[in-house]
């Protein structure tokens, strides 16, 4: 709330001048239960913090007002919101008819409330039957509707209700790119759809560092440690109540057998909820020493509990949506969330028909820690939603218009609050510099940061985190949505675990380093890590000469020699992640010593370090400088001096470069005879100096069947950063179940 107050002070004058209009938008927010309030509360705080633009009316109905479900309207009062109207709309019962009657009762009571409030717009969340009554009433009374979380896909009757509300709503705030596309496919007006992310993520992504041990002790006991308890939240499936009750019994049996402290929350108000409570009492859950059964936990405390749990189990949307922000393992039971996008922390047990199957899932998931996922939000949803609300023109016709097929191919729209570019944070760890960049889906480097690479592990990791945090903050200002972090580094890398196994000698204190965990925890983003040679190949596959090519090889010619192999469109890592160490192909049994300890490697002949070594030898013998060259006394001899000398006619320098080009060419011939690519891409600062020599060696030494291979120089200005970005842009953790 403080944040939004400060924000409003900064922008008030500017926006008022732009609008030229003192009319305040009267917003009615109607909340039905504890779950939708967790999504609506951040928006309500934002609206309340800008009284110069908005008037807020709060209507409370549904299970908020039922004692059996914790009288959760009290948490709205504790948040210092004035509740304008309380509507008792739940008809008690245990079957589908009770839900229908509850909708009917709400429809009877709501018109009088809306007539008194006369809101300009009503904000409705989600897919509950109460929300359908709200949307129906507002639509029939010619009140504009803003629907939160439309376009998503899940199981049960909620899916149908959600899409029905979409057709009634005038404006849509969705959480994922897929949901946005679903809304467009449902013929909703493109200009009235905002891809903002989930409002609850604005609170979730700043929650984990708060004091949590007292909360765990309060709800689970003082002897419980973090990552050593389970949170269970399961609701009835209204389209198959009998089966969902049976599944709940099996879940409780499995939890009893698993023998870990467990917090069990009561189910939602739905047909079948009373039967589920009876099952809990029949099994003695409320009095079992390992269980704590509660009707309600305040949202601030609930997110701390799931953030530090060993596992969450059940069929709540919270498990597949919000919990991913913490990387907490989740077991999703049954079909209630079928179709939801999930992170890799979710294990689905669709047919949860035996206790053993659920118990096995608990054994697999409990205590793990996954990368944090931002599928459903990046922590900036509320500012986008407030901006969207301010852009609503009440003079526009109220009647909805539908955009029937064909749907536009371009998913970006022509209004600034939708034009956010899917992007990646790319990190390049070189021997000298550490670089971080925001890279768009099209390969454009939007913003780049460069610092000297520190010499120690602690300083290096701290600098990476600092630069990434700065870049992620800047991404909002340049209208980019960060999907994840990709890291390119020298040495041997295990990309599955995000660990640098062995480093090159150019980067000190950089072996057995877990890069994924600290960066993912700090940024709440998925993180991918790979070798710089592999990243260069990925960059070519997505943005360069390798685009659309099934089999090709990339060779980096720089300080060292590296590369990557793409076979049948896939990058080859090898059984111990040592594939494509192309710089260490041996081309001479008695050649110069390589940094790897061997002799005669390509890198010992053709790398920048090798050329610098030969240049120093010539310089020490006064054989390097020729007419037209000069060096300052303190200047360090480099490979560039050797190349310059060769261009000016130094025959010894020419001979060294010719030998280096021949060694590289022989290595390429060996590659052609081994993996038979259709394209060889030379990348790096020395590529232009070697390309003709490589082609010449191929024409003389290669088998006739591979002589026709294309050898080209990369046209990418920054393959390391682009390759790191492609790790994210090609391999995001988004999954459809």
CATH architecture title of the largest domain: 3-Layer(aba) Sandwich
What is the molecular shape?
A: elongated
Structural class: alpha/beta
Number of domains: 4
What is the terminal-to-terminal distance? 36 Å
The main sheet orders its strands as: 3-2-1-4-5-6-7
- CATH superfamily membership of the largest domain: Glycogen Phosphorylase B
Question: Fraction of residues in helices?
Answer: 25-40%
DSSP strand content: 15-25%
CATH class (first level) name of the largest domain: Alpha Beta
Q: What is the count of β-strands?
A: 28
Q: What characterizes the major β-sheet?
A: 7 strands, parallel
Which topology of the largest domain does CATH recognise?
Rossmann fold
Number of helices: 24
Measured on Cα atoms, how large is the radius of gyration? Answer: 31 Å
Attribute tags:
about 725 residues, alpha/beta, Rossmann fold, Nucleotidyltransferase, domain 5, 7-stranded parallel sheet, 24 helices, Bifunctional UDP-N-acetylglucosamine 2-epimerase/N-acetylmannosamine kinase
Description of the molecule:
This protein is of the alpha/beta class. It folds into 4 domains: 22-198, Rossmann fold, CATH 3.40.50; 206-365, 3-Layer(aba) Sandwich (Rossmann fold), CATH 3.40.50.2000; 414-544, ATPase, nucleotide binding domain (Nucleotidyltransferase, domain 5); 546-715, ATPase, nucleotide binding domain (Nucleotidyltransferase, domain 5, 2-Layer Sandwich), CATH 3.30.420. Helices cover 39% and strands 19% of the residues. Helix 13 links the parallel strand 11 and strand 12 (330-333). The two termini are 36 Å apart. Mean pLDDT is 89; it is low at 11-20, 407-419 and 733-737. The active site is at 532. Pathway: Amino-sugar metabolism; N-acetylneuraminate biosynthesis. Pfam families: Epimerase_2, ROK. Its EC number is 2.7.1.60, 3.2.1.183.
């Amino acid at each position: 709330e403080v944040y939004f107050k400060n924000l409003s002070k900064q922008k008030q004058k500017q926006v008022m001048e732009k609008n030229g209009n003192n009319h305040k938008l009267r917003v009615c927010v109607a909340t039905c239960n504890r779950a939708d309030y967790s999504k609506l509360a951040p928006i309500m705080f934002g609206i309340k913090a800008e009284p110069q633009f908005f008037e807020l009316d709060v209507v409370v109905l549904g299970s908020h007002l039922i004692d059996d479900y914790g009288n959760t309207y009290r948490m709205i009062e504790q948040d210092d919101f004035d509740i304008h109207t309380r509507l008792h709309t739940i008809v008690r019962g245990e079957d589908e008819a009770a839900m229908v009657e509850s909708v009917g009762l709400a429809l009877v009571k709501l018109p009088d409330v809306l007539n008194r409030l006369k809101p300009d717009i009503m904000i409705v969340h989600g897919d509950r039957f109460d929300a359908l009554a709200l949307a129906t009433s507002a639509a029939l009374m010619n009140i504009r509707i803003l629907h939160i979380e439309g376009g998503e896909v899940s199981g049960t009757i909620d899916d149908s209700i959600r899409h029905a509300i979409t057709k009634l709503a005038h404006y849509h705030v969705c959480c994922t790119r897929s949901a946005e596309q679903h809304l467009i496919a449902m013929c909703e007006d493109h200009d009235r759809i905002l891809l903002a992310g989930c409002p609850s993520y604005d609170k979730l992504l700043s929650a984990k560092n708060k004091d949590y041990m007292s909360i765990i002790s309060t709800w689970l006991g003082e002897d419980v440690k973090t990552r050593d308890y389970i949170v269970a939240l399961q609701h009835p499936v209204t389209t198959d109540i009998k089966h969902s009750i049976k599944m709940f019994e099996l879940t409780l049996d499995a939890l009893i057998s698993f023998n870990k402290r467990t917090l069990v929350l009561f189910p939602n108000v739905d047909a079948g909820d009373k039967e589920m409570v009876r099952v809990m009492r029949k099994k003695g859950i409320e009095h079992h020493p390992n269980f704590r059964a509660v009707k309600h936990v305040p949202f601030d405390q609930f997110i701390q509990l799931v953030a530090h749990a060993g596992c969450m189990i059940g069929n709540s949307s919270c498990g597949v949506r919000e919990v991913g922000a913490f990387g907490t393992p989740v077991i999703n039971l049954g079909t209630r969330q079928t179709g939801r996008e999930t992170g890799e922390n979710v294990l689905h047990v669709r047919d949860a028909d035996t206790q053993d199957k659920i118990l096995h899932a608990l054994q697999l998931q409990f205590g793990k820690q996954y990368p944090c996922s931002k599928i459903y939000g990046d922590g900036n949803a509320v500012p986008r939603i407030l901006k969207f609300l301010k852009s609503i023109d009440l003079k526009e016709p109220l009647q909805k218009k539908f955009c029937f097929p064909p749907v536009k191919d371009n998913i970006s729209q022509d209004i600034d609050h939708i034009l956010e570019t899917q992007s990646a944070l790319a990190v390049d760890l070189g021997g000298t510099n550490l670089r971080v960049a925001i890279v768009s889906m099209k390969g454009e480097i939007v913003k780049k940061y460069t610092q000297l690479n520190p010499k120690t592990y602690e300083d290096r990791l701290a600098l990476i985190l600092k630069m990434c945090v700065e870049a992620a903050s800047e991404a909002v200002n340049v209208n980019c949505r960060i999907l994840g972090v990709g890291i390119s580094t020298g040495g041997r890398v295990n990309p599955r675990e995000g660990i640098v196994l062995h480093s090159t000698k150019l980067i000190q204190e950089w072996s057995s380093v877990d890069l994924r965990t600290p960066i993912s925890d700090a940024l709440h983003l998925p993180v991918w890590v790979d070798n710089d040679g592999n990243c260069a190949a990925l960059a070519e596959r997505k943005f360069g000469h390798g685009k659309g090519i099934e089999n090709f090889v990339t060779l980096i010619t720089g300080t060292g020699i590296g590369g990557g192999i793409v076979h049948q469109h896939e990058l080859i890592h090898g059984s111990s992640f040592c594939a494509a160490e192309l710089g260490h192909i041996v081309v001479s049994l008695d050649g110069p010593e390589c940094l790897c300890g061997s002799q005669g490697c390509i890198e010992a002949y053709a790398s920048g370090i090798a050329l610098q070594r030969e240049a120093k030898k010539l310089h020490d013998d006064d054989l390097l400088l020729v007419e037209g060259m000069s060096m300052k006394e303190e200047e360090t001899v480099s490979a560039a001096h050797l190349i310059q000398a060769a261009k000016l006619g130094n025959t010894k320098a020419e001979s060294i470069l010719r030998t280096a080009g021949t060694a590289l060419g022989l290595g390429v011939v060996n590659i052609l005879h081994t993996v038979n690519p259709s394209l060889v891409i030379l990348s790096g600062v020395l590529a232009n100096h070697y390309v003709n020599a490589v082609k010449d060696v191929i024409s003389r030494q290669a088998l006739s069947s591979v002589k026709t291979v294309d050898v080209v120089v990369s046209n990418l200005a920054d393959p390391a950063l682009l390759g790191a970005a492609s790790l994210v842009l090609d391999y995001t953790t988004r999954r459809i179940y």
